[in-house]
Specification:
Blueprint: H1 21-29, H2 33-39, H3 41-57, H4 62-70, H5 75-79, E1 82-83, E2 86-87, H6 90-133, H7 136-141, H8 144-160, E3 164-166, H9 169-176, H10 180-192, E4 196-200, E5 216-219, H11 222-232
Antiparallel strand pairs: 1-2, 3-5, 4-5
Helix pairs in contact: 1-3, 2-3, 3-6, 6-8
Length: about 230
Amino acid sequence: MTLAPSPPHRPQKTSGGTLRGRYVDLLTDGVSADALKQRGDRAVDHALMSTALSAVCAGMGEQDWLALVVDPRRKLGQQARFVKGRPRSQNEYYQYLTRVWSRALDQGHAVALRDRSRYRDEARLLVRRWDAFLTREIVAELNPDEALLLMAFLDKISDVESPRVAFGRRALQETTGVPERRLRTRMANLQRRGVVRLEVRGRPGGPHAKKRLANVYSLSGPELLADQLREIT
């Protein structure tokens, strides 16, 4: 069955946050049969609330979270369509999801502020370490495409003030100017060496999402690349 658009309530803007992989898996797999038997609706509510709280702490907007939940491929969202064994109406369903999101906002506000402050400090320290390392002489030793990719990641980390950043392949191409085939090769090389780490693989955002969720990456400290360059010389 095709899901209707969400009912008229004030949507939050999307902000580019990304749900952590294990919570995407929870949405996809749903609550186990044993948990449903033991706790019923409470098990579904608790699981759904945990995904909403994670989304709030990651800086996601309500509409991005809703798009994941109502995707027919996400079992947890389908389980949430029922209460006390009966199906919720479409309005009841979306009203319930809105209440879950509101609860997550209330509970996650303090946590999100604390985490954002910690991530900001981590991101700033990481960028400072890389900036100190990437002297003109070091950059000259790097593959030009890989140097452009590293600069793009550092700029993004600095912009969003988080050590973990979402970056799609098209956005990387536009930012660096590296052709797709070479970009794939150089990204694979940086990941193989551990300099760039794939934290969360991008997934379809759901039927109501405007775009696919991008891969989430992090950078190692510059010390790893320094060791690799020493081994080469």
